[in-house]
Amino acid sequence: MISYLRGTLAAFEEDKVIVDVGGVGYGVYMYGQAMGRLPAVGNEVKLFTYLNVKEDAMQLYGFLTRDDLSVFKLLIGVNGIGPKGGLGVLSALSPDDLRFAVLANDVKAICAAPGIGKKTAEKLILELRDKLKLEDALEHIAVSESEAPAGMESQSQIQSEAVQALVALGYGSTEALKAVRKVEVEGAMEVEDVLRSALRYMNI
After folding, report:
1. What integer pLDDT is reported at residue 165 of this predicted model?
2. What's the CA angle centered on 193, arms 189 and 197, to 5 degrees?
3. Residue ranges for the chain with pLDDT beneath 70
4. Three-state DSSP state, 75
């Protein structure tokens, strides 16, 4: 099992990168957004990997973080979603966006992933609801926000704080997520504004 690769980024191809590790070039499949966050050719990279073994091929799939890899493994554990489909989901939804979509039963958001139809999305939600935790998403948002420049409060942070406030008021996490997701967060909005709007949806 190859847990990760650390080496020199040798080349970009259409759907994969080549990583030179000790003179051996490994082809690693990745989704577009992740490839776009890699450094220029010639720089060192570290990719967490999943080795998919088939009768006629062995394919490496690469991810920038362990969280991406762990969510990918959960996705391909869903019947009907293979490695290509798993990459497709992650190309449309970040791991935290996927957590929110699953917990909020947001079939439409998951169907935005290439190759994922309504039935597959519903199956994904059903099978992953108990495996993708809201607390993980909120924790990841908190970590990313702590690293952001002072005074820059992102849409994700505002949403997460609004969800936590609703849960503190006694609403269920899934119900709170659905309501907050319905609110279009604009630049000037603060947590209190989102909370007021979300509460209106809670009473519909």
Report:
1. 84
2. 120
3. 133-156, 173-174, 187, 203-204
4. helix
Q: pTM of the predicted model, to two decimals?
A: 0.72
Decide if 2 contacts 51 (C-beta within 8 A). Answer: yes
Residue pair 101/109 in contact (Cβ under 8 Å)? The answer is: yes
Any long-range contacts for 139-144 (C-beta under 8 Å, 24+ apart)? 140/67, 140/95, 140/96, 141/96
> What is the C-alpha to C-alpha distance for residues 175 and 202, in angstroms, rounded to an integer?
8
Q: Quick one: which H or E segment has residue 120?
A: helix 118-128
What burial letters (b/e) apply to 170-198, b meaning 16+ CB within 10 Å? ebebebbbbbbbebebeeebebeebbebb
Q: How far apart are CA 43 and CA 39, in angstroms?
A: 6
Tell me which residue of 80, 12, 18, 82 sits closest to 54, measured CA to CA.
Answer: 82
